[in-house]
Amino acid sequence: MSNDAQYLDNDEQTVVILMTSGPSTPERCATPFYLGSVLAAMDAQVHIFFTMEGVKLMQHGVAENLVAMEGGKKLIDFIRDAKRAGVILHVCQPALPGYKIDESADIIEEADHVSRASALVDLILGCDKLITF
Q1: DSSP category for residue 10
Q2: How many domains, in total, are found in the chain?
Q3: String of b and e for 98-125 (b: at least 16 CB within 10 Å)?
């Protein structure tokens, strides 16, 4: 088997992307969704867990009005691309009050779960790869 062959079998691979970047660093906000989409297309199970300022990306009105670079597409379009690819989105419940985000009214429909910190720990302990942004 060639060295490259090890990268071709992604079945059963789980990747967690820990997203702490948010609207204050928009240039860091599109790549996690793009990478997540590519990984999911390669049959990896991908979870993006938003915590710290990252939770603001899951708030109504934020991703719809944010671009990573001037002239680029809206962040919500990257989010929707990731969802279509099968990426699972988790929003950190303990981080929401600090940003005055109401989990029952302010979270975009693309989010799959509002999760406790213990869910993040479970994801990290069970994943094959962890990427942070």
Answers
A1: -
A2: 1
A3: eeebeeeebbbeebeebbeeebbeebee
| pTM, two decimal places | 0.91
Which range of residues forms the domain containing residue 88?
A: 11-132
Q: How many residues does the chain have?
A: 133
Helix, strand or coil, per DSSP, at residue 103: coil
Domain for residue 1, yes or no? no
The CA distance from 31 to 121, in Å, is: 23
Q: Measure the CA–CA gap between 53 and 56, rounded to whole angstroms.
A: 6
Amino acid residing at 109: E
pLDDT of 28-52, one tens digit each?
999 999 999 999 999 999 999 999 9
Residue 82: give its domain's CATH number.
Answer: 3.40.1260.10
